[in-house]
Predict the structure.
Amino acid sequence: MTPLSLQLKRVTANLRGDWIRRWERNIWDGSISCEEPFVVLIVAQIDSDLFWAKSLPSKGDALQLRLDLMPISKTEPLFQLHFTVPTGAFLQNVTAEFTDRNYRPKISASIKFETGALVPFATFSPRLKLSFACFAKTDVVVRRHYVWGLKPQFLDGIKNPWREILTRGRSGETIVPVAA
């Protein structure tokens, strides 16, 4: 786990879920729970491209998290990945080819983690990784249409692209700077 800022509130959160088979699809269906209201940022990194989306704030102490491996071919192991928090965070523009049609990546996320850190969720290959981060609702400001961003006092020390992502917008795409 990579802390995004040392100033953010640390609250213990829990991840639980499992793979289910539905029709021709493998779906990891689970939830994230926390002791207080929170928000979730989901991230898909493909090489240096970073796709991201933000959930609505939780109304209770849990939000659903789902990864759906949807086949896009009737015979080949080609899939569209749907990584979602159904309260507004959807990443659906990621495709991948797997070794076979029953492929399920190992879920690498810890079942216990702290808010304010980027948590690796699943790695499909060196070039395709899914992650998420949870933030205590007290660390964010919620604007119109429930779009949230980190409060300005927590942005010191956060470098781009994370600073850009955590200040505004519901979803987007950016480039991860590559070290020379």
Q: What stands out?
A: Residues 2-175 form one domain. The mean pLDDT is 91. The helical segments are 162-167. The chain has one domain: 2-175.
